[in-house]
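so my prof wants the structure for this chain in the tokens format not the other one, which i didnt know existed until like an hour ago. anyway here's the sequence
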Amino acid sequence: MNSLIFGGIEGSNPLGFLAAVGTWRLSALVWGDGVRMRWIQRNGWRPELAGVPVSDDAEFCRTVCQEAPWAPLEAFEPLGKNLTVEPGTFRPVSQDAAAGAVRLDRRAADFAAAFGSDVLADQRSGRVRHTDLCFITGSGHQDFLGTVNSLKQNTGDEHLREALFGPWKYRDRSLSLRWDPEDAREYALQWQNPSTEGVYSLWGANRLAFEALPLFPVVATNKGVRTTGFATRGRAHEFTWPVWEGWIGVDAARALLAAGELQADAVDREMLQAIGVAEIFRCQRVRIGKGANFKVSFRPARSV
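here's what i got, hopefully its the right format
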């Protein structure tokens, strides 16, 4: 099998992990279910993709950029620029997406399931309980779906190449989904006021990471609405993900990411190693700032 090692991605970075999974999912949609991925140790955990008929990084990025069936953002135009909508607005969109799945196009349905659930509305706002991976909701002129649409318009294959093969240089102005711990620029820890310096990001990594959302659906449980991969421990709300050493397909990863064993306070390392999980990373989802000027970010991850 041809294989590509995405040397620009470090598996302990939540943005890097999501970008790898998003790339993998798009590749499987282009080249079929035979596309496999694993993680290898090479100065950190790096994703390796196999089962694609190209071995040149430039050709791979060009094909994914131009031929992959990216998220059907047009299906979600009725939501506006953000996911902070009432159930009555969200429900027709999700129903239309479900109708598309019946016609064997699951893309909109998978994203609708990942965006939120109209089963239980937020008691204070009356709005849809959206995904915990939605870090921007309109404050500071930053919009979740609006940012993704801008990424769609501005990201080219050269941005994908930097994200996947590195190095990450953070030269792109704004358009961040705030999934990189580098975005958590707290005032007390900076030499200068971070609010006046502007934000630099990686457009390619953010656009690819958004494509991972269908593997993290939002589901209603007897304890409320939950986002796959997230759990609350005490006062900390945390995102957990694994890296694995065996070749697996996207459907196997979907089951692995939802495994309850990943969320245990004391993980069963022997059991997880038996199914190929080499390491588990966990990071906090935090709110930085007060009042209407707060921002949501990830803290740097730790190995558990």
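also thought this was worth mentioning. The mean pLDDT is 91.
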